[in-house]
Each structure stands twice: as C-alpha cells, then as structure tokens.
Amino acid sequence: MSLKGKTAVVTGSNSGIGLGIAIEMAKAGADIVINSFTDRDEDHALAEKIAKDHQITARYIQADMSKASDCRALIEKAGQCDILINNAGIQHVAPIDEFPVETWDAIIAINMNSAFHTTAAALPVMRAAGWGRVINIASAHGLTASPYKSAYVAAKHGVVGMTKVVALETAQEPITANAICPGYVLTPLVEAQIPDTMKEYDMTREEVVKNVMLTRQPSKEFATVEQMGGTAVFLCSDAAAQITGTTISVDGGWTAL
Ligand code: NAD
User: Fold this and answer.
1) Which of 75, 87, 105 for mutating ligand 1's site (highest number of atoms within 8 Å of CB)?
2) Is the pLDDT of residue 226 over 90?
3) Which terminus of the chain is more solvent-facing, meaning fewer CB atoms within 10 Å of its CB: N or C?
C-alpha cells in the first residue's frame, strides 16, 4: 500500500521500535518526522539516511516528551501530521515500595502524558487534512501486569484507556485511534532491563531472557521492530478504516495465556 503524501510523526524514534516503525512508514512512501530529546549530528544524519534510502522527506525534530510544551511544539513544528505514532517510552524495574518518585513521574510523563499532549495537538491538524491515524505503542503491559513495573504498567494501561476515548471522540470522522501492544522486542529498552532483572532474580543473562522475559511469550521468540512497523502500516490502510478503539497484540501469544 502507498502512504505517499502522508506525513508520519513518530515520537522517540532514534532507536528501537520507533525507528523500526519510521523506516516501515518510509518504505510505504510516507514522509516522516523522527524525534527524541537529544539534538546530535547523528540524529539528523539518521533522518537524512532514511530520506535517501527511501526517496521520501525525513526530518529530525528534537523535543523532550517528558515536557508538555515540547510535545505540543513537536506537532506544531511538524506542520503536517496525518499519522501520529506515540512511541516514546522508558522503563524502570523496582518493587513499588522502593520505586523512586522522580522515576515514577518521568515514566508517567513520557509513556502516557506525552500521548495526551501530542494527540490534543495533532487532532485539529488531522481534521483539517480530512484523514488521520493515531497509533499508540502500548505494551502487553497495557493489558496485563508483571511485578516491579508499577509505573510502566500504570502508564500503558492508561494509554490503552486513552486510545479508546480518542476513538470514540473521532468515531464519525475519517480518523482512527488504536494501540499496538508488543510483547518482548529486543531493543535497547529491553537490553537495559536485563542487568536489574538479573539482580532481582539472581539469574544469568541467558536465564533472564529464557525464564523471565520469554517465559510469558509462548512463541519463545522476540517480536521484531519490523513487525511493529508492518502492523502500524496496516492500521493506515483502507482495510483498517473501521478498526478503531482497539488493541492489537503482537506478542507471540503472551496475552492469550
Ligand atoms: P528504546 O529505548 O529503544 O526506544 C525508546 C525511544 O524513546 C528512544 O528513541 C529514546 O530516545 C526515546 N525517548 C526516551 N525518552 C524520551 C524523551 N524524554 N523524549 C523523547 N524521546 C524519548 O525502547 P523501545 O523498546 O524501542 O520502546 C519503544 C516503545 O515501545 C516504548 O513505548 C516501549 O514502552 C514500547 N514497548 C517496547 C517493548 C519491547 O520489548 N522493546 C515491548 C512493549 C512495548
């Protein structure tokens, strides 16, 4: 399918799932805006490379998704925003009674509040264009829980709830809102959880991957960033025009358990 003429804004997309989604959007012909809180030469070079590889327009716009004003400024600077992919996210693993307050606040701000601010700013732009797609990257943890991930699970359940509200508020417009719920995808975010989980459970790296992470993923395989991107592209297709307010699990069967 072709997304030529559409612009996809992907938050938190200089690595991992966001980058994978941005590349799949570009492959489908969309112009893209990639984002993170950094402003390094390599961030801009990444946009240039994707533009060159796929013959589309790609821009890198720095914006810190922990800040409401930056979230809204990202959409304003993007100008066009037909497809909004709320992907920025961080994780921290600790028992709730030891969970650092500032880390709780940061996870809620980046993983949940940012989607509120970008969506609020993007909906008028989509309405003016007469078409729109809001795609929130939630998680299997938007549907189920795990110990030691209180802020993350709370934020992701919040994102799933907000997705339903946005879908209802746009139900009679050519705009849809859905959440993709990945299981484990081997990205820098997951890599970073391994040392803490090793400590928490007194396990080796291999034991954490096999017995903690993939133990709940019946396929026993990590999902890939390309699969997340492909699912997002599908949600932009005409076939998905009546899919709204729902979650699509890409989790190797995790939430079927
Ligand atoms: P990642 O760490 O590779 O990527 C996170 C991205 O968010 C990076 O580009 C980072 O720069 C960006 N980011 C972090 N803080 C930011 C901020 N303040 N402002 C702007 N950007 C910021 O992680 P990932 O695994 O690719 O995760 C992407 C999303 O997918 C997250 O929302 C995560 O919760 C979700 N997810 C990941 C998995 C998984 O197994 N990897 C599973 C389920 C859901």
Assistant:
1) 87
2) yes
3) C
